[in-house]
Write a structure and sequence with these properties.
Length: 380
């Protein structure tokens, strides 16, 4: 995924400055090489006539693909892109890229890749972007990316990866964006990302993650954006996010969370945006968000909240936007502190008219902020 792609939640615009992909693609001649099935490749090759190799039934990426007549003298190019998407490639063989040491971007999306040789990327020391989206990859080779010392973007979305191990990402000290949405991950083991010390963006959305180790995010001190949208998390272990001291946006929408303990959110001192929409949250402890002084946007819509202590929001001085609609609010005396806060706050609410009582029957469908204390009663 492009770091500026559209998400189900707003993305931090600052993350678009991590690297300018457009500049990467046009700052050098966009050379492409392919196998003999590209019949329209000019001979001799004029660098300004780029051969198109998408959909050319290439079935393997190996050393011979870039040697002999197929390479057409491109090996000495200063920097270039390999566009091999939408073919029938099933494997990436050892040393496939040794003859193209200056390649900066490899696009292998929408193929049928199942296996990656541990030495497939040997020699590609200048590679900055690798797109392997929409393939059939079920596992990543141990230390398979260790030669990609300068890789910044790794796109692995829409595969069938079911397991992560720490050694899978060894050597990738400069990676800034790791995209793993739409895979088959069920858990996050300890130290899964410990080698990714420069990572800024981690997208784990649309998996089936049920469990995470308290040490799953060890080493990610520079992470700014974590997307866990659309998984199956029921609980978050205490201290799981503690290593994420630079995190600014956390997306936990569309999970199965029924409760949150303050210890689950420890360490998020720099968090600015927290999304918890469409979970099963039934209550919020008054101090659950107390350790997030920079929080400016909080989304709690689509849960099972019946009452919330409004005083919890008084201690969020930077709160600018709050989403509380689509909850089954019980409008009685226990909700009075929230109603009072709603009337006084300058924060943008999502929208006020969508925050309505479900019970008691006489107040059903009433707008929360329209209620006076004389309506918010608790019957003995």
């Amino acid at each position: 995924m492009d770091p500026c792609h559209n998400l189900s939640t707003p993305h931090l615009s600052a993350l678009c400055d991590i690297a300018d992909l457009a500049a990467l693609r046009v700052s050098h001649p966009a050379f492409t090489v392919c196998s003999g099935s590209c019949s329209h490749v000019p001979t001799p090759w004029n660098r300004h006539e780029i051969p198109k190799c998408r959909g050319e039934n290439i079935w393997s990426v190996n050393y011979s693909l870039f040697s002999g007549d197929a390479a057409l003298g491109v090996v000495n190019a200063d920097a270039w892109i390999l566009k091999l998407g939408e073919n029938d490639i099933t494997d990436l063989q050892a040393d496939a890229l040794n003859l193209v040491p200056n390649v900066e971007s490899i696009l292998l999306e929408h193929n049928a890749i199942k296996t990656i040789h541990p030495q497939a990327f040997s020699g590609a020391v200048h590679l900055r972007l690798l797109n392997l989206e929409r393939n059939h990859i079920t596992k990543l080779p141990p230390r398979g990316f260790k030669d990609l010392l300068n890789l910044r973007f790794l796109m692995l979305g829409q595969n069938q990866i079911g397991l992560l191990k720490a050694d899978m990402f060894a050597g990738m000290k400069n990676l800034s964006d790791l995209d793993l949405p739409l895979n088959s991950l069920t858990s996050l083991p300890p130290n899964a990302f410990k080698h990714l010390t420069s990572l800024k963006v981690l997208d784990l959305s649309l998996n089936v993650i049920q469990r995470m180790s308290p040490k799953a995010f060890t080493g990610l001190q520079q992470l700014m954006f974590l997307n866990l949208d659309n998984n199956s998390l029921k609980t978050i272990p205490a201290g799981a996010f503690k290593p994420l001291r630079s995190l600014e946006m956390l997306v936990l929408d569309n999970n199965l969370l029924s409760s949150l303990k303050p210890s689950a959110l420890d360490g998020l001192d720099n968090l600015q945006e927290l999304y918890l929409r469409k979970n099963n949250l039934e209550q919020l402890l008054p101090d659950v968000f107390s350790n997030m002084p920079k929080l400016s946007q909080l989304a709690l819509s689509g849960n099972r909240l019946k009452t919330v202590n409004g005083n919890m929001f008084i201690h969020m001085p930077n709160l600018r936007k709050l989403h509380l609609h689509d909850n089954p609010w019980r409008c009685d005396c226990n909700l009075s502190s929230l109603v009072q806060w709603l009337k006084q706050t300058k924060a943008a609410l999502s929208p006020r008219t969508a925050m309505r009582c479900l019970s008691p029957p006489e107040l059903q469908n009433k707008i929360l902020s329209s209620l006076g204390d004389d309506k918010l009663l608790c019957h003995v």
